[in-house]
């Protein structure tokens, strides 16, 4: 069983159907699909596949730097944000780390690979799956070498309080704790500035970004790491394997951040469908739903006799079970927000599963 969403083929084989017959709510990918601007660029530049990419990816790093008003030297692009999680952990070589739970599995796996001692900061339904001032106390007491923080968090989709986030940044700076902030889904929150504008003030701050989800290019794989630690970025670039980013992923990063019509259409779609789907799910007494800010919603099924993932598979709908997240159970799930038509099918299937459709 995959630890991530999007494993449609495995689930299709389980129920004896073809993968294309399943509606995938397990992977949080923009339903608008790959931008037309990128499709046209790839077709027009197919010959890129006949040449090695620039091993330094100069055009890509320049485009990302323009988008974020920083220097190319502040940025390292990678084969999705996941490659960069491992790269920054390998560079930092932390002996101890603090992880908020539940959170994305690859932080833990990357830390385990370097033999790091991991401390858990548990979040639960009682605290709304959100950190509070207690996190600052734990940081001061433990003094870990690094802290991973996702804004918004995965799988809950929740953003920490803005004032608390700034206090965490300052606390980590004061106590020489490397702070790795995963902003993989922040592009879905147009009103949130993120921490990139503060890189120059906090050299121990490392920000992860992903273009995979927002621009619907999971098969291309593209993410990037930003930091004011120029020596660290330079070291990570020198230590990496060559050509981890394929030519078309690099091309994507060079053009899609300028595609304002696509970006605006995505924000408009999400504003409509996020509200609609949240309201519809809240109307089901068998579900407890958290009002996430990203393009997915976090659920607790209050009917433990129902395996919701298996029940929905009978309707050819795949959702993400969250039992493998530390601190969660087999009754916790995550669903992507998709097109209006697909979202209606999900709600209808849930009504039938719970017996009040």
UniProtKB/TrEMBL annotation:
Involved pathway(s): Cofactor biosynthesis; adenosylcobalamin biosynthesis
Catalytic activity entry: O-phospho-L-threonine + H(+) = (R)-1-aminopropan-2-yl phosphate + CO2
Cofactors named for this entry: pyridoxal 5'-phosphate
Enzyme Commission designation: 4.1.1.81
The organism's place on the tree of life at top rank: Bacteria
SUPFAM superfamilies (UniProt xref): PLP-dependent transferases
GO molecular function: threonine-phosphate decarboxylase activity
Keywords (A to Z) from UniProt: Cobalamin biosynthesis, Lyase, Pyridoxal phosphate
Domain Aminotransferase class I/classII large: 21-350
Enzyme class: lyase
Cross-referenced PROSITE patterns: AA_TRANSFER_CLASS_1 (PS00105)
Record-linked NCBIfam families: L_thr_O3P_dcar (TIGR01140)
Reported function: Decarboxylates L-threonine-O-3-phosphate to yield (R)-1-amino-2-propanol O-2-phosphate, the precursor for the linkage between the nucleotide loop and the corrin ring in cobalamin.
Name of the protein in question: threonine-phosphate decarboxylase
């Amino acid at each position: 069983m995959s630890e991530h969403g999007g494993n449609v083929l495995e689930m299709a084989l389980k129920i004896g159907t073809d993968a294309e017959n399943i509606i995938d709510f397990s992977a949080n990918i923009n339903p608008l699909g790959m931008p037309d601007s990128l499709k046209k660029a790839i077709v027009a530049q197919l010959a890129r596949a006949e040449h090695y990419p620039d091993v330094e990816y100069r055009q890509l790093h320049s485009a990302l730097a323009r988008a974020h008003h920083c220097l190319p030297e502040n940025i390292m692009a990678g084969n999705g944000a996941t490659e960069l999680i491992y790269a920054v952990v390998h560079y930092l070589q932390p002996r101890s780390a603090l992880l908020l739970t539940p959170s994305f599995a690859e932080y833990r796996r990357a830390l385990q690979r370097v033999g790091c001692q991991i401390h858990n900061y548990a979040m639960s339904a009682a605290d709304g799956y959100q950190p509070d001032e207690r996190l600052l106390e734990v940081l001061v007491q433990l003094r870990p070498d690094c802290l991973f923080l996702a804004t918004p968090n995965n799988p809950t989709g929740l953003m920490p309080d803005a004032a608390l986030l700034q206090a965490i940044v300052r606390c980590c700076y004061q106590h020489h704790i490397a702070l790795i902030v995963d902003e993989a889904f922040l592009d879905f929150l147009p009103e949130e500035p993120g921490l990139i504008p503060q890189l120059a003030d906090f050299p121990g701050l490392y920000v992860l970004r992903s273009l995979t989800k927002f621009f619907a290019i999971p098969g291309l794989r593209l993410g990037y790491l930003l930091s004011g630690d120029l020596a660290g970025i330079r070291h990570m670039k020198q230590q990496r394997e060559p050509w981890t980013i394929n030519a078309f992923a690099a091309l994507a990063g060079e053009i899609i951040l300028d595609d304002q019509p696509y970006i605006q259409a995505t924000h408009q779609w999400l504003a409509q469908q996020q509200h609609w789907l949240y309201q519809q799910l809240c109307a089901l007494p068998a579900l407890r739903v958290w009002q996430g800010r990203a393009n997915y919603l976090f659920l607790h099924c209050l009917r433990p006799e129902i395996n919701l993932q298996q029940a929905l598979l009978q309707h050819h709908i795949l959702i993400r079970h969250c039992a493998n997240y530390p601190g969660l159970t087999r009754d916790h799930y995550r669903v992507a927000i998709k097109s209006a038509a697909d979202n209606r099918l999900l709600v209808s299937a849930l009504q039938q599963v719970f017996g009040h459709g």
